[in-house]
Structures are given as structure tokens and as C-alpha cells.
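Workshop exercise sheet. Pairs work together: one partner reads the sequence aloud, the other fills in the structure field after running the prediction. Swap roles for the next sheet.
Pair: D.N. / O.F.
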Amino acid sequence: DFALDPRLIPTSRRHPFTQIETLVPQLHDKHVIIICQKGLKLSQGAAALLRAYGIKADYLDGGHQAWAAMDGPLILAVNIPDIQNGSTLWVTRHRPKVDRIACPWLIRRFIDPKAKVMFVQPDQVALVADRFGATPFDVEGALLGHKDGKCTFDAMLDHFNLHTNAIDALADVVRAADLGKLDESPQAAGLQAASLGLSRMHKDDQQQLMAGLTLYDAFYRWAGD
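Structure field:
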């Protein structure tokens, strides 16, 4: 089934249904949604088994096929970076403003909720990526970077095929704010101002990232509504 459609629902991970019990230790405090091809025997059985272990588990009605039929976002699995020590690893330039907060937000919300993002000096991004096996972004020469008049957020959407009405509407705001083309989006000046404010409020890039995630959650909710 996966060979016929090698895409994943955002943030989902593949796991053999014959080894469901091995997930119990890492799921004891989580609400789990199980997905199979059609939402029948495999996902319903796996969810029931997890519930027998005390895990709060449900299955996706209609499974992967129903999600795809309603044009839900799907990501090519081959484009998702390898998981290291329980999460994917990314690296970019330090002192982020717009793009380098928007992209980690996209990664955390749609690719890997546990993703780790490293912020380093610009001239060290490629070297750190090589030594630590991280995926570089928003730096010159990276696959995920500025190109053809668009920002790195756009490059990530294209790379992962993450295009929905809400995400594309948010991308218009991010692009205008990041490239300084404020006349292209009524909301861009506000996003740019808030981003610069967060950068000045937080000397620690990780603290700024955590604060910025809420900002992008709000913009995404606005775009969806």
C-alpha cells in the first residue's frame, strides 16, 4: 500500500502493526491516532491493543485513502530527514528574524514535533550540518533556501509538498515580511515588527523560537479561518 502512495500525513511515522507493543513506553502520556490504508482491521486493531495497555488511542476513520480524498496535506516520506535520537536535526544561522522562525514552526507543526533546531554562526552552518548529520536551511547554497525571488519558507513548502489554502496564505505573509516587500501583504508589516521585537527581547535563540511558535500558531489560525 505504501509503495503505491509513499506519502505520510504530517507528523505521522510508520511502524509495523506486528510490533505495536514496542510503542507503549513512549506513548503512555499521549493521545495517539492510528492510521492504516482504509481505517479498518490494522488501525482499529492497533488502537484497541494500545487501549488495552492504557494508552489513549483512536483510529482515523477511512484511513489514508479518506485523508487523501479530502485533499489533506501529505508529505513524501523520502523527503523527511532521518530521525536521530528520537527526532530530526536541523541547523541554520543564528539570530533569527522571520524565515528562521517560520521554518522551524513549519517543521515542528507538520514534519516532526520533536525536531531539534541548532542556531550557529553563518559560516559554520554547512560544516555543522556535515559533522552532526543535520539538515541545513536558510543559508546560501542549501537546498532549502532563497531562490527565484522566494524565501526559505516557500522552498520548504515545495520540498515537502505542503500546500493548502491556509499554509499558502501564511506563506504570502512570511515572504513579504522576510523579503521586505511589505506592500505585497497587508499583514506583513505586523509580522515583521513582531519578529524584530522578539529578536530584541530574547538573546537566546531557543527562547526566541519558543516564543515565535505561538506567534505563527496565531497567524496560521487566522489564515485558516
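Discussion prompt: The CA atoms of residues 7 and 77 lie 5 Å apart. What would you look at next?
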